[in-house]
Amino acid sequence: MKKTLIALLSCSTLLLTSCKETKATEEQPQATEQTTESQEISDLSIYNLPSTWTTQDGKDIELKDLQGNVLVMVMIYTSCKAACPRLVADMRNIEERVKGKNADKVKYVLVSIDPQVDTPERLKAFAKENQMDGPQWVFLRSTEEDTREFAATLAVNYKKISPIDFSHSNIISVFNTKGELDYQQEGLGIDYAPTVKEIERQLALIK
Question: How confident is the model at residue 26 (pLDDT cuts 50, 70, 90)?
Answer without folding.
Answer: very low
